[in-house]
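Thread: Newbie trying to understand structure tokens

Hi all, I'm a second-year student working on a class project, and my supervisor (Dr. K.) asked me to get a predicted structure for one chain before our next meeting. I've only ever worked with sequences, so writing a 3D structure as a token string is new to me. If someone could post the tokens and maybe explain what I'm looking at, I'd be very grateful. Here's the chain:
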Amino acid sequence: MSSDARATFPSMRTAWAPVLLLVAASACGVRSDPFDLPGTAGGGGGGGGGGASCEDAEELVPLEDAVLEGTLPAGRGMLEGWCGRDGGAEDVYVLHSMNNRDILVAVEAVDDEGFVPTVRIEVDTCGATEAVTDEGYTELCRADGTAFVAFAHVEAGHDYTIVVDSPEGEGGDYRVVVSYQRPDPDNCILHPESPTLVQGGYFLWSNGLGSGQGNIQGLCGGPGTENMFAVRVLEPGVLRARVTSNTADAPPIVDIRRTCAVVATDRCEVGSPGGVAEAFVDVAEPRTYYVTADHHGVGPFSYDLEVWLE
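---
Reply by user tm_fold:
Sure, no problem. This is what the structure looks like when written as tokens:
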């Protein structure tokens, strides 16, 4: 991780990045110094931090940017997630969301040893060892020990638990920035195929995705791997999209939005396992839409995506 990763955003236009959204491994200067944020939750880098369990999680103030800082001691913790490197101590924060907003999450290495915590955002659950449960699901889970920048989403009426975790026997200082920002176009992770449609135009794409946490959040969930396509629509009409799941236990999700931000979603639908999800939007004038083929799970996913304008 370069030392300027905290002050810049990367530009990534590929659907094959095997990490969570917007990994800050390089910088292109899309926006400078986004982390000059008011307020600090936690122990200010000198110990303390959030709560030690789900029951005593430190509450974050809705709609206020925050910097979560603390020190995780080397040892054994109480909570484990599904994506690994989480047997050590953890700090727990909770946000009771009052609005639908996109948020930026930035995790930095702040000590001389280069310690970077595992970070999870769990929706309506806490301490889940599976990515999807009856109560909720894990929206973000990053456990590869490198600093990163990601975008997540919070929805009104839901609880979001942020767990800052560590491998068993390891610890160190951490700094996690939580900021109410939406991704701009240069921050989208897009499939390299970018179809252009006129009346009667049709686009078909088939793909097989590996297991793991995905990059793109959505109003219909979808914690697993996915592909997002920028679809240029040149004429008015009705834009339709259909995702067919070729994986028997994977419910497909189709998502249509006006930018890659979740708050710009026009329509999303979830199908039955191994079934079909279909959505449409009325197009009044030429523009680019972002169409995502996703699934509700973290296992492998094979799909067919159809997009057409009528």
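A couple of things are worth pointing out once you decode it. Residues 190-309 form a domain with the Jelly Rolls fold (CATH 2.60.120.380). The two ends are 47 Å apart (CA to CA). Feel free to ask follow-ups in this thread.
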